[in-house]
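Ticket #4471: structure export looks truncated?
Reporter: QA, pipeline team
Priority: medium

Steps to reproduce: submit the single chain below to the structure queue and open the exported record.
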Amino acid sequence: MILAGGQGTRLRPLTCHTPKSMVPVINIPFLEHVLNNLKAHGIKDVVFAQHHLPAAMSRYFGDGSRFGMKIQYVMEDTPLGTAGAIKNAEKYLHDTFFVLNGDIFQNRDFTQLLQFHREHQAQVTIVLTPVNDPTMYGVVETDEKGRVKRFTEKPKKEEAVTNMINAGTYVMEPEVLKRIPAGVKVSIERETFPDMLVGGQAVFGYNSQNYWMDTGTPEKYLQLHRDLLEGKCDGYYFAKNINIGTGSQISDKSVASGKVIVGDGTIVKPGAILNGPVVIGSNCRIEKGAVISDSVIWDNIQIGASAEVLSSLIADHCIIGARSYLDGAVIGDHINVPQNARMAPNTRLFPEGELP
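Actual output as written to the record:
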């Protein structure tokens, strides 16, 4: 089960018209990476919990047959929280099942995780991951056998007895669903799991050192691309410095350094400079003398002549005017940046009719 109903508020303006679970990661939707990882471990039955902008997911994935999977969709008329969303899909959850948050990018060994869950006869197994600063997350304290002793939400620095946090991935037995009331908003992290501890239920933590990234902010979304292109996540390795999609034309008089990914049908004109890590989507046009560095550009983008795009994110169908300058900008879809524009660092531009 994948919790994919969130509004992606922290990732706006990229998510004004695109659900956060469908934002492109190396030019394919985030959820497609998740499905590929699940399928590699023999998991082919998936349920998407939906609420915000659901049509994009069903339109792209359909019934899952194109991906060798079976996909069901469960709609929430109003947000039900993490536990409520799982309860809402109860009719599909008859056996041991995984739950994944739809904005966590990870390289998870689900086979090993399931083995741990069964060996410990757990009702719930929570994947734990180490972070440098646990004060921003839900900290999970376990005993020497991995049984969860206590949850602490966003502890003060002096109160954090461990840096292992809830990684947003669970293995659950269907009996747990009986503990969740139907049709109401319930948090599995703040309500269901702590209640299970009080009731003496077998809740275990599975310590993992695998790659993990909460992609919920523009800064972390950009960092994810840096990490993937730099080979920091197993399964993602780019032997060539520049990787070009079908029908793209990259002038031999342009300059590329570092890792660069270019989608299909994109044109890069002479004199353009691409300083990786850079990801450029499909049907883009990079004009003469344009500089793109440490940035992610979606589909159908035009970067004007001699424009500079540094450490920025640009959503679909945008035009960046000639000689304009962006540094740390996040640009929503269908936005035209005028020629010679110089934006303050970390500018956010929202599509027409959308408010910050």
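Status: closed, not a bug. The export was complete when the record was re-opened. Leaving a note from the reviewer for reference: DSSP finds six helices and 29 strands in the chain.
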